[in-house]
Amino acid sequence: MNSKIFIAGHRGLVGSAIHRLFADLKGYDVIVRTRQEVDLQDSLAVRDFFDQAKPNFVILAAAKVGGIKANWDYPVDFLLQNLKIQNNVIENAHRVGVQKLLFLGSSCIYPKHAPQPIQEESLLTSPLEQTNEAYAIAKIAGLRLCQAYARQFGSRFISGMPTNMYGPFDNFDPETSHVLPALIYKFHQAKVSGSKSVTLWGTGTPRREFLHSDDLASACHLLLENYESPEIINIGCGEDIEIRELASMIQKTVDFQGEIIWDATKPDGTPRKIMDVNKIRGMGWKPRVDLESGIRGAYDWYLRNKATN
Ligand code: GFB
Question: 238: Cβ below 6 Å to ligand 1?
Fold first, then answer.
């Protein structure tokens, strides 16, 4: 008999990739709900949904997410919405006897000045980066809640910590999105409107690691079926680049001929956050999408689905 798996957040960047993968796998019946059908912030709605659906497995990819500016401008939304979503889903998963739950956190749970590459053991060893503290605190509460269920009830509630993600179904809004989709949007708009320059945020010197959402989906599959420890596990590609280099790559992909202006009045965020991925690599997983073709694919998706000329 197939196992019922609830993928929370299936319309987002990460959840949609996980949905695509599990929809094609043998042995699973995938359950998804839109926000209109079940608002995960509504405890009663989530309770009713779990009573009726009774999933065997849960992947919690639903979250309020955004780039550096959105995190800074809306700390209440990032803290409160994420706490509500994860508390409702994790508590009800336990209540109806879900066999295994995978909670997804973020690399921003680690201290601003954690030694690089960041090992899982760096969690809570020194202060967080200010620009995304609200989101990080919510995600730390989520992973700790999973660990608490594991300790108190023996629940198989595990937590994966993905690095900066990108891919289809990303948010391309220039104000609220992460850097990679924001740059696709900005270079494309500048190209079609004939602008001579594009203004990017910060100094361009921070370094970030980027993982394609399809690679995260394959990591989630592996962890759900093979990872049993309540200890968190990093999910990344193990390589990072300067934001300036990323900008050049996207500029080239979009074929924008103008100049880049760096607005240093905007925050840089954490100087560097590259994950130590030895733990998940040791399980035989590795990413398949290289950054250049991943950016090409994300731009193609943007052109097909979002771009207005
Ligand atoms: O991806 P991003 O918004 O967030 O920004 P974080 C990464 C870097 O790109 C920062 C620079 O140094 C930004 O200043 N940047 C340059 C830009 N131009 C732009 C632009 O037009 N838009 C954006 N968004 N950035 C996020 C956290 O941190 O990482 C989240 O805020 C989450 O909570 C996520 O953890 C993974 O990488 O700094």
Answer: no
Distance 21 CA to ligand 1 centre (A): 27
Task: Kindly tell me the sign of the dihedral angle through the C-alpha atoms of 163, 166, 169, 175.
Answer: positive
pTM, to two decimals: 0.97
Rg (Cα) of the chain, in Å, rounded? 19
User: Looking at the annotation, which residues are catalytic?
Assistant: 135
CATH superfamily of 179-205+241-272+295-305: UDP-galactose 4-epimerase, domain 1 (3.90.25.10)
All residues at 6 or more sequence positions from 180 whose CB lies less than 8 Å from its CB, including other chains: 164, 166, 170, 210, 246, 250, 295, 298
- Which residues 6+ apart lie within 8 Å of 118 measured at CB? 107, 110, 234, 273, 274, 275, 276
Helix (H/G/I), strand (E/B), else coil: 209: coil
Fold of 3-166+210-239+275-289: Rossmann fold (3.40.50)
Ligand 1 lined by 200 (C-beta under 6 Å): yes
Whose tokens are 């550096």? That residue is 68
**Rounded Cα gap, residues 305 and 309, in angstroms:** 12
Q: Tell me the CA–centroid distance for residue 131 and ligand 1, in Å.
A: 9
List per-residue pLDDT tens for the chain, 309 residues long: 999 999 999 999 999 999 999 999 999 999 999 999 999 999 999 999 999 999 999 999 999 999 999 999 999 999 999 999 999 999 999 999 999 999 999 999 999 999 999 999 999 999 999 999 999 999 999 999 999 999 999 999 999 999 999 999 999 999 999 999 999 999 999 999 999 999 999 999 999 999 999 999 999 999 999 999 999 999 999 999 999 999 999 999 999 999 999 999 999 999 999 999 999 999 999 999 999 999 999 999 999 998 875
Cis peptide before 127 (omega within 30 of 0): no
